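Supplementary Methods S3. Input chains for the assembly prediction are listed below.
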Amino acid sequence: MRFSVLKILSRQVYRSTIKKRSTLWLIGIFNLMLGFAVVSGYQILTTQQQIVDKYSQQVRHRWEKSPDKHPHRMAHYGYVAFRQKFPLSFFDFGMNSYVGNAVFLEAHRQNTVNFSEASLSNGLLRFGEISAGLILQLLLPLVIFFWGFDLISAERENGTLRILLTQGISWPELIMGKCLGLFSVSLTIFVPVVVISLILLFSNGAIGDNWQSLGYFAILIVGYLVYLLIVSLLAVFVSAKSNTSKSALTKLIGFWLFFTLILPKISLVIGQNLYPSPSKVEFDTAVEHELLAQGDSHNPNDPHFKVLKDSLLQAYGVDSTHKLPFNYGGYVMREGERLSAETYKRHQAKLVAIYQKQQNVVRLTALCNPFMAIKNLSMALSGTDYATYHDFENQAEAYRYKLAQTMNELQIKLISNTTKGSSGKQAIINRKHWAEFPDFSHHFPAFILVFQQEKLAIFSLIIWISGLYFLVTLSSKHFKAF
Amino acid sequence: MSKLFIVNKYMLTAKNLTKKYGEHIALHNLNLTIEAGEIFALLGQNGAGKTTTINCFLGFVEPSSGQAIINDISVTQNTAETKKYLAYIPETVMLYGNLTGIENLEFFSQLAGFRYSKEELSGFLSKAGLQTTAHSQRVGGYSKGMRQKVGIAIAIAKKAKVLLLDEPTSGLDPKASNEFSEILKELSQQGTAILMATHDIFRAKEVAHRIGIMKQGHLVSVIDSRDISATELEQLYLQMV
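Predicted structure tokens for the full assembly:
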């Protein structure tokens, strides 16, 4: 393949496409839509960041300013963890608006993350949001198909193709040259939104302590470029293969419908049927059922903790829990928290495993569906996929467990073993202990985790681009000149 | 001396060239040689195999057996190399309507690996007989004769040694057709081998050195055009087909 020929061919495609008034209109409209999508996405993001900042400060402030009290009362007073938005989330909203934003953390209980945008907004969100990611994944291919469907078939129909080929260019050169031209036209839509996004990314205060998002954006850009190249190559390849422009267009629109609407929907339904997940009520009932069997850790005399009691008494050589050198009530509570947290974790892990399996079915179809591949990759790198959300849930639960157990430790160490109840003067400890417990901070998954989770998507994009390339270079005998 | 060498050189050779489409034989054991500077006209009804012959030389149709050879290089074995010597002018030279004559010529020349200045390109168009005023007009407004001239200019700019013409003058008015013939003669004098499929018996007699008549895939007769008058050629043609 000669570079000079590719350059001549691609320049010709670029110039003749860009010359058309309709093309300019389309490019203008797309740039407007994309600009609007990222700017409004960015505004939503900064508003949410401000809200999260404001209320997490309030939560912290109130926690630290709580009066002297019994530590377990403090564990029940609880904490609220807020989900941070990844600085890149304005580019691809993903599931952001549909998953919860805040969770109340308290002893003994794992609460659901609540207050998603969708649950708070009016019906408008139901019509779907338009993010830059969605436009680039879903609508741009359609436009590329419209620009590219007749790039070769029309030349065959009007006879220029034979003169082209007589000038000594090969089929692979012709297809790749046209593809690169089409690709460069699509860049007139892709590049501006990338530039705007970079400006927005830098103007966000959060970028200072989160360079991660900039690195992710770089990878995301590469991902989208490969995707656009795949779409361009597919369009030109189908145009070369089809007998008429009309059939090329029909095929390409068929591809588009199949890849963007039908296949994702089918894979979702298959995933849910293969691996049915329990409803929220079923899940909670199952956890509750098991917890009841473990006894009530608030009651030190609960028969379920008899074995624990007996072994402690034996170890310390005393005949009553009152004679133990530490607060026995706190000890039982610590044990109870450990058991209930483990139970919840086990059930939660099972549930998440089911979700994972469902999503793996969808991920697997990404292998044969470049649209699904870029969609998954884009969401993951923008920090708006389910995995990022689940990671937040885990971080919040880990923090909750630490909070409850720290309070239990304080009770074990600092509260006298003979103290009854939790309101007396002896049952309270100094408020300075509250400030010693660190604030909740939400971190985003490292790239290696994102990569591991989305390796199929990355693999799929590589397979598609190299597969199409080989198809173009190897099957040149099968194309028709007339 | 060198002129003699050029004249004797076979630029186009068909060796037992055969093309079958299933049961139908479109081209049957064609044997043909055309020297540098020679104009060979192929006569015959539609479906006689003229276009198939040209397509075999262009590499657009793969022969079922036999060989198409250009400048001693087999078309099937090295299609890319043979294209360097070839120029092709179909019944109507199709160009990019939104580009000017010069831009079209520039584009096609660049693809063939040539870079010319605007003056040079304009020179080629003039040499092909296209009036200067049309050079920078859009091809969309060109007449058929003008398009054919751009086709010739593409061939000249490419320094083609072999010209394959598929009914290039059909539908041209007599004046344009005559101009076209003059240009072909000029090219032939400069050593270009020309294979032309045509229905125009009188044009063939006037411009070609040799004339072949094809019927149902067979080359049934080859006549030296000096040995026959146009009327005799017409009678022979009518007898043959």
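The radius of gyration of chain B is 18 Å. The beta strands of chain B are 10-21, 24-35, 39-44, 65-70, 73-74, 86-89, 162-166, 193-197, 210-215, 218-224.
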